[in-house]
Amino acid sequence: MIKLIECPRDAMQGRTEFIDTAIKAAYINQLLQVGFDTIDFGSFVSPKAIPQMRDTAEVLSLLDLYSSKSKLLAIIANERGAEDALQFEEIDYLGFPLSVSETFQQRNTNKSIRQALETVESIHNLCEVNGKTLVTYLSMGFGNPYGDPYSPELVADFVEKLEEMGIKIISFADTIGSADSDLIENLYEVNARAFPNIEFGLHLHSNPKDLQPKIEAALKAGCRRFDGAIYGFGGCPMAKDELVGNVATESLISILDKNGFETGIDRNELSEAMKLSRVVFN
């Protein structure tokens, strides 16, 4: 079974106009009916850094989880954020952005890679004690625009360090839309073979016209965990291309359908969520 992770948090967080808390909750409640494996619903980070997410705890209090099988994931950037998120039993996963680019790690979390790895280990231990699971996102996982070192072998070194800590889920993140299908297939095949106990996912930012070969390359290499956002809302401003955004969930589902993969998605509920997204992101 394919695991689809819907990312309203990623779609919302970069918007300058604050989205009303009740509207966020209504949208996420609709997403909870669609059949996604996980909803990346919010983050516990500094409101100065991401003002759009300052109401994550309040949004959580408005969610109806009893009629949904979807799990909840919250992004955190340090131990304090993890401790805040761990207060809520409704949250199943914590997500931490670890970059293979030193420059981006400093920009994203004000930490060096060495410090960030220490933070990952600390947060993973907190998750273990509290019955949660840490999802580690390897951002700039397919290259970076800074001239920092990059290679699939470098990524494998990061994965090895994470495996030694006991990390079970790693998602390769193409932060700037630089991956091609050959690199995606190579990266997954190498790591899935070397680290069979880790579940690897894919968080792409991509131009829509390039999406199908990328997803099919990941499927061929054995990837069964994919992140998306309805209509592709959100993305990374550093991509410097307005077409490079999150993977549109509806496009991802269409590609999976064409390749014969079962998603478990309720199409009627998805249609309602797509209608509602137009109101949220108007």
Automatic annotation (TrEMBL):
Keywords: Lyase, Metal-binding
A Pfam family: HMGL-like
GO molecular-function terms, A-Z: lyase activity
TM regions (residue ranges): none
InterPro entries given in the database record: Aldolase_TIM, HMGL, PYR_CT
Residue intervals of the Pyruvate carboxyltransferase domain: 1-271
Family: Belongs to the HMG-CoA lyase family.
Descriptive protein name: Hydroxymethylglutaryl-CoA lyase
Native organism: Shivajiella indica
